[in-house]
Amino acid sequence: MSGALVAFPTETVYGLGADATNASAVARIYEAKGRPSDHPLIVHVSSMEKISRWAREIPVYAISLARDFWPGPMTLVMLRSELAKDFITGGQDSVAIRVPAHAIALALLSEFENMGGLGVAAPSANRFGQVSPTTSKAVEEEIGEFLFEGDLILDGGPSLVGVESTIIDCTSSTPKILRPGAITREMIEECIGQSILENTNSEIRVSGSLESHYTPKAEVILGAMAEPGEGFIAFSTVKTPDGAIRLASPATIEDYARTLYAALRSADAQKIKRIAVLQPEGDGLAIAIRDRLTRAAGKEII
Ligand code: AMP
Ligand code: MG
Question: The YrdC-like domain covers which part of the protein (predicted)?
């Protein structure tokens, strides 16, 4: 992977990877995504033993989290080592690291490490602000035109989790959830034996850090029934309103996460203008789904 890009499947969403030590390769990720350069990337490695290269301080609780949830949908942010340059951390003194739970991703990472590679920097393989891809076809549609000969898109079928990893800030004495995901607050608290903070819809965020993200072209309306001709996403127990176009009918919360992004994409493919969504209630994965939906709707998270 000498400076090339490789889009690869993970259990959360597809990533767009490059050698995390290669400035010009990483610059191509930013170009392909159209992403501002102060927006950091996640370094992917094949096992937790590899994190001491990238982090200079690893709290004891981070080791517990890594043992319990890696490989898996969890990203740990730690104080960076000298290896983690500004071009992957967005100029911050911290670096985000993950071991994905996906056979193809792990094979890619191990192979790369066998060749002397130290880590693969990868954000989600979508244009900045758009919906993350959960299939190789969605990757092709998002960033295909920015790939050259020698770059690759690996196909691993649809992502099993479907929403991005839980990001946990491990730079102070207590961990803090920066982005909710499939590793839930309850799971983290049980693992480390203490209660933690979560940036959820119920917590106030500094104004200015709010952004619309994960947005399809269609307008997303939360908590409303669909009118005729509009898209509709709700649990399978809810009937489709007359004339509405059903985009997803998940039976479980895991199904909801897994099918959400494909449903938003299919609305755009069908040129649907508005999508009415009945959000899942409750804690756990529902918090991550509501977080993404709120951003998809372009609403402030307050
Ligand atoms: P993705 O959103 O999947 O494209 O992955 C990149 C995300 O990881 C960024 O948007 C940040 O939210 C998060 N991230 C990466 N590095 C850091 C860091 N050093 N501190 C805080 N968040 C980070
Ligand atoms: Mg992303």
Answer: 1-183
